[in-house]
Amino acid sequence: MVLGAWGSYAGYTDGERCVQDGHCSGRAFSVGPYVRYQLSQGLRFDPWLTLGGGYRRVTFDDANGARQKFSGLEWLHFELGADYYVFSGFGIGPYASLGLSTYLKRPSGSGDATVNTELSTGLRFLFDLPGR
Fold first, then answer.
1. Which residues contact 6 (CB under 8 A, 6 or more apart)?
2. Is the Cβ–Cβ distance between 12 and 27 less than 8 Å?
3. pTM summary value
4. Cα–Cα distance measured from residue 64 to residue 59, given in angstroms and rounded to the nearest whole number
5. Are 63 and 21 spatial neighbours (Cβ–Cβ below 8 Å)?
6. DSSP output for 37-86
7. Would you put residue 55 in left (φ > 0), alpha (ψ -120 to 50) or beta?
């Protein structure tokens, strides 16, 4: 079992509409503590799962220069993945994550504090020093 901290940053655009209307974008930042459990110990193939929580902030800028900020509690951060150790100090593998959050601070008129869901997948590169 490993205790640590996780962080996430994502940038968003609205594609074709942003090109027509001018510049618009969004950014999301999350950070918090986690507990990771390695499902196998000492093998080249190492599946794992992570459970944590934290703080989340999302900002949107529209073409008119107006900015909307949302921030609150990410009350569930769950990741599932597997690393394959190419050699002792370097691993690579897929992962998927699910984040559930509630925005406690949000612009007026933006509705109730409902649950926001974020799902992401990717490829993880791992540098394990001093190695396995």
1. 30, 31, 32, 33, 34, 50, 52, 54, 77, 79
2. yes
3. 0.79
4. 15
5. yes
6. EESSSSSSEEEEEEEEEEEEEEEEE-TTS-EEEEEEEEEEEEEEEEEEEE
7. beta
Distance CA 48, CA 99 (A): 17
Query: What's the pLDDT score for residue 60?
Result: 86
106, 113 in Cβ contact below 8 A?
A: yes
Averaged pLDDT for residues 56-69 = 85
| pLDDT band with cut points at 50, 70 and 90 for residue 43 | confident
Can you tell me the distance from the alpha carbon of 80 to that of 97, in angstroms, rounded to the nearest whole number?
Answer: 6
> Closest Cα to residue 38, out of 83, 76, 96?
83
